[in-house]
Amino acid sequence: MVWSLGLLMGIGQIIGAWIGSRLVLRHGAHLIRPALVVAALAVSLKLLWD
């Protein structure tokens, strides 16, 4: 187990969660709905490609 890499990934996840929660509180459904559609399309295209 590489502790330094795990710690770096954990810090990145905390920062990403903080930024994401701030964006949701500020922009609400206007931000989340398109992001969810884009993510679903990306996963669908990836599955179709494979």
The biggest sheet amounts to: none
Q: Round the Cα radius of gyration to an integer and report it.
A: 15 Å
Number of domains: 1
Number of strand segments? 0
Classify the secondary structure makeup into a structural class.
mainly alpha
Name the shape in a single word. flat
The number of distinct helices, counting runs of at least 4 residues, comes to 2
Distance between the termini: 31 Å
List the helices and strands and how they pair.
Layout (H helix, E strand, L loop, with lengths): L2 H25 L1 H21 L1
Explain what this protein looks like in three dimensions.
By secondary structure, the protein is mostly helical. It has one domain (3-49). The protein has two helices and no strands. The protein has helices at 3-27, 29-49. It starts with a helix and ends with a helix. The model has no long low-confidence stretch (mean pLDDT 93).
